Amino acid sequence: MQISNEQLFNFLKKPRSFIEIAKKFNIFFEENPQLTSFLSHLVESNLIFKNNKGLYFCPNILSSHIGIFRATQKGYGFVELKESSDSVFIPAKFTASAHDQDEVKINVYQDEIKSDKTYGVVTKIITRKLKFLIGKVIKNGDYFDFEPYNSLKNEVFFRWVSTKDLILNEYVKVEIVEYSKNILKIALVKNIANEKEKFWYLQVPLVESGVEINFPTDVEQELAQIPDSIAKIDADRIDLRSNTIVTIDGDDTKDFDDAISVEKLANNNYRLGVHIADVSYYVKEDTFLNEDAATRGTSIYLPNMVIPMLPEKLSNGICSLNPNVDRYTITMEAEIDSQGNNVDVKIYPSVINSKARLTYNQVNKYYKNEENNFTNEVKTLLDNALELAKILRKYKENQGYVNLDIEETKVILDEEGYTKALEVKKTGISEALIEDFMVRANENVSEYLAKKKFPLIYRIHDKPDVERIEEFNRVLKSLGVNVVIPYQLSSKTFADAVEKIKEQRLDNFIKIMILRTMQKAVYSPINHGHFGLASEFYSHFTSPIRRYPDLLLHRIIRHFLFENKKDVLHFERILELQSKTTSELEQRAQTLERKIVSIKKTEFFSTKIGEKFNGQITSIKKFGFFVELENNVDVLVHISDLQTNEKEEFVLSDDGFTLANKFYKYQLGQHIQIEILNIDIPFGKISAKVVLNEQTNNK
User: Fold this and answer.
1) Distance between CA 620 and CA 634 in Å, rounded?
2) CA distances from 77 to 90, 132, 280, 343 (A)
3) pLDDT tens digits for range 480-531
4) Which residue among 155, 257, 442, 470 has its CA within the 20 to 30 Å range from the CA of 341?
């Protein structure tokens, strides 16, 4: 029997019966079993389809792609395309045997009912990425079973290699030792926690993330060789220990990467010094310390703990710019005129002795004339710093820097570790000041090194793509905001458009929509500029204690600038891989941080069921909508919980901005009041219903 896939696909543009196929391709009766097997294989591979009448068909393929499959708890999934930032919806029946994180090949088809919609079909599993699972040991009748904690829900069955050492209702990590279409053979790797244990729901996502808390023995042994203090100053360092240099950080910060100095010069220019911990002096390239830092990529800051990139002896000790002790640094020194232009830039190895450990709260109070307990030298520094920060901010805004002033919510814990408060914090003068100085330092170092043709790791941020701009313009129109974002964008034109939007409407929803329009910043050895910061050159230089790309950049500075070495190829090989890896590790850290913060926020609402809160609709789906409360907590109002006595179904509008029936309408950006119904602490989910009052938009 000889039938090519291409011939068959062309014939099946119209639905055909088995007999029609057999006749078309001259299949003998005795070959029917082969044809049946051939067709079944194609159906199982989602290359052709079989309808409820038993007819085979193959619709036109719009496109084919390779990407990463992301499963959902509902069974359907999405494929994140490799060649773009787009994703394709995969109905549950077309996921094949794909599991979360698998690399797959898909075909994209036009929806038969809604011609403007498309869907994907998984046709091939290229690589099985999922090696381990987190879940709970459960009983299915008399047998031990496994309930995944993550989104692996698409009709998968589990078979234990061994049931020895299994504990009922214990959360565990398992290894997938064998794949088949719907059955995964699993083996116990480690016990994590039991539901009866305090904060078990924090341990599970931590293990799921793959983040290591403890440092390996090899690293600890290397640490023993690193001193706790500086005994003798290296001759090649510029001695700044007598200069007025300070750190400004959060109240609970323990690792101080950066310190600043600001002087007003006789010519009315300013000398800005940004002094960064010289981590690369202690963490050498061919060491276990460096290897371990590279696998971590970043420090992770959770409400209940910090998981540092470097061991505490370095992060809080010899590398940390603690007050009144000598510390090695790399200094970016810039002379800046009254318009914000660089007159001169220098980068050099230095040694400092910080004169004060200041906090954002202290400095903010000083600028409000509520704090005066500083030395005259520190006061002069702070006064100069404020003058310069205003100049730098104006300079950046003229370039096209978008300042959204996003409010962050800090989780406040009680003595036992439970969430006792959610504190919404606005960016103060001192926080903005330090940001302005760090941005200028990152820009200056990046440009300085780039113009010397050194290999670099850049922090790049591309401009929004056309689809996101179109979506944002539709949202603005639906809100009655008379601004159209142009497709041919520069940082300046986008910033100007944002300012016009602010004049008509400025709330958290608008800020969220602006952020959704923006691309994600990543690391790259190739410079694309930084759209959001309006920077032609931008690299991360200022946080080598907690970010590996900064440590890499310091190593490049030492190698090429301080030691005058020429091994370009070595770094070019490293940077391509490290740019990709550190971007992925950053995403891993952000995902874990979001999960834990969401869990701790939900924990706060465990005593709030039945209470009412004001909020704003930020996202609308077929199944309901999400509301952001005033403390920046997201809750779901499910369509089944929309409070109405009428039997009229709610329908999502074609543009996706409105969910309405004959009597009630809910729109993006609408302010409403909700009542908390349920919470799911382990998954960080809160459900609510709408409180029908004058605030509710009745039709």
Assistant:
1) 13
2) 5, 19, 43, 54
3) 999 999 988 899 999 999 999 989 988 888 888 898 899 999 999 999 999 9
4) 257
* Beta strand 183-194 pairing with 157-160: parallel
* CA separation for the pair 145, 135 (Å, rounded): 10
Ranges of CATH 2.40.50.140 domains, the chain: 63-127, 608-690
Measured on CA atoms in the order 147, 148, 154, 156, is the torsion positive or negative?
negative
Question: pTM for the complete prediction?
Answer: 0.86
Question: Using an 8 Å Cβ cutoff, are 58 and 72 in contact?
Answer: no
Number of Cβ within 10 Å of residue 514's Cβ equals: 21
CA 481 to chain centre: 29
Q: How confident is the model at residue 247 (pLDDT cuts 50, 70, 90)?
A: very high
Q: What DSSP state is assigned to residue 316? A: I
Tally the C-alpha atoms within 13 A of residue 578's C-alpha that lie toward its C-beta.
Answer: 26
265's tokens: 């010069």
| Bridge partners, 675 (sequence order) | 612, 689
pLDDT per residue as tens digits for the range 11-47: 888 889 999 989 888 888 888 889 999 998 888 878 8
87: how many CB neighbours lie within 10 A of its CB?
A: 15
Q: State how far the Cα of 324 lies from the Cα of 36, in Å rounded to an integer.
A: 81
Cα separations (Å) of 555 from 278, 339, 560, 692?
A: 9, 32, 9, 60
Q: If we measure between CA atoms, which residue out of 539, 562, 559 comes closest to residue 549?
A: 539
Assigned fold of 132-197: OB fold (Dihydrolipoamide Acetyltransferase, E2P) (2.40.50)
CA distance 413 to 202: 14
Q: How far apart are CA 531 and CA 541, in angstroms?
A: 18
- CA dihedral sign of residues 412, 673, 689, 516: negative
632 vs 634: CA distance, rounded Å: 7
Residues 6+ positions from 218 with CB-CB distance below 8 Å:
288, 292
Superfamily of the domain at 608-690: Nucleic acid-binding proteins (2.40.50.140)
Residue keyed to tokens 């010094």: 273
**Nearest of 359, 430, 346, 427 to residue 390 by alpha carbon:** 430
Half-sphere exposure of 155 (CA within 13 A, CB side): 10
**Which DSSP state fits 530?**
B
Return the CATH class of domain 63-127: mainly beta
